Amino acid sequence: MDIQLEKKRFSNQKLLIIGGVILLLALIVFVILSSMGGSKLNVEKERISISTVEKGVFQENIPVNGIVLPITTIYLDALEGGRVEEKFVEDGAILKKGEPILRLSNTDLELSLINQETQVYNLLTQMQISQNAARQNTINKLNQYTDVESGLIEAKRVYDLNSRLYEKKAIGRQDLIKAQNEYNYQKERMLLSKQILGQDSIAVKQEQNQVQSSYARTQNALELMRRKVADLVVKAPVDGQLTSLDAEIGQSKNKGERLGQIDVLSGFKVRADIDEHYITRIYNGQKGKFSVGGKSFSLSIKKVYTQVTNGRFQVDMQFEEEVPEGIRRGQTLQIRLALSDEKQAVMIPKGGFFQQTGGNWIFKINENGDTAYKVDITLGSQNTEYYEVLSGLQPGDKVITSSYDNYGDVQELVLKD
Description:
Layout (H helix, E strand, L loop, with lengths): L11 H27 L1 E5 L5 E3 L1 E5 L2 E17 L4 E6 L6 E2 L4 E6 L1 H61 L5 H58 L2 E3 L4 E4 L8 E2 L4 E18 L11 E6 L2 E15 L2 E8 L12 E7 L4 E7 L3 H5 L3 E5 L5 E6 L1 E5 L3 E6 L6 E3 L11 E5 L1
Parallel strand pairs: 1-22
Antiparallel strand pairs: 2-21, 3-16, 4-11, 4-15, 5-7, 5-10, 6-9, 7-8, 9-11, 11-14, 12-13, 12-15, 13-14, 16-20, 17-18, 17-21, 18-22, 19-20
Helix pairs in contact: 2-3
């Protein structure tokens, strides 16, 4: 008798399909659960920095380094070249105006001075000889003039006498004409003598002027040469402190070469380097602050040097009121240079979070203080201590401002005590 077999409800193919679907669903669930588990990270509170969002007075500023310098520096250059023969003081000495610093020697310059002095002496001797000759010539001409004048007087006397004698018919007409001719001759001589004497006077004056002018020029050249030789002794142009002296005995210095500098000690200024990014926002009168010994001091920009070198430019700053006690040349100051006026703003302290977020988001802590989650934010200006918050946070909110280096793509932090 045949036994009827029960027909299978599922074929092997259907079983494989069902098994595959179950495995796929299990994989999806696993991925979802894994993703949800990876979006959280346990963090100990003591290893992070928690800051409170504040609202208060905010001012945009940047940190700059400044070097303390004398308010005025006078550079010492060699006015004449020469060999260093003697040093009267050393670097760092406090000097008075006119005090000698060092002495140079220049044989060619000293020889030129001797030649110039000889030339002036020779010219003076020639001028004296010329003046004596002119004086003697004038005396001779005056003597000649006196002789002519005497002859004219005598000729006039004889002519007047002969005129009266002729009227009385005591002499003949020829005697009268002879006396008249002599008188006319002497008058012509007198006129000529006056002209010669006048011309001689003009010539003498012109010659004297020329000689005196030539002597004055030569004398000026001599004085200039004497000053050039005197410049071989380098002296302090002002009261101050000698710094950066670069001269040793026996060393040769060229004309115009830098020898050192004099720092005027009447006050100080601060020279600061600033990134060229801010060059359009820097102007005279702009304020800055720094602290020394826990006390704050104010500076203002006095001069802006617009030349950019290696991506930076410089400014000179002056002390607004009080100068720190004991400040010295070359001291470095950490200055907070203001770029805006003070205003009320929402702000958060600066921290390492910015390097990972770029200021676009931050971990904000919930009210219970046990969880922190990502929120989008918008930051504005900044200073050395704070970022200005434009949106995304409110005063009183607590945020994590320390570095996010180890958080990866975590969306939520679980804070543990």
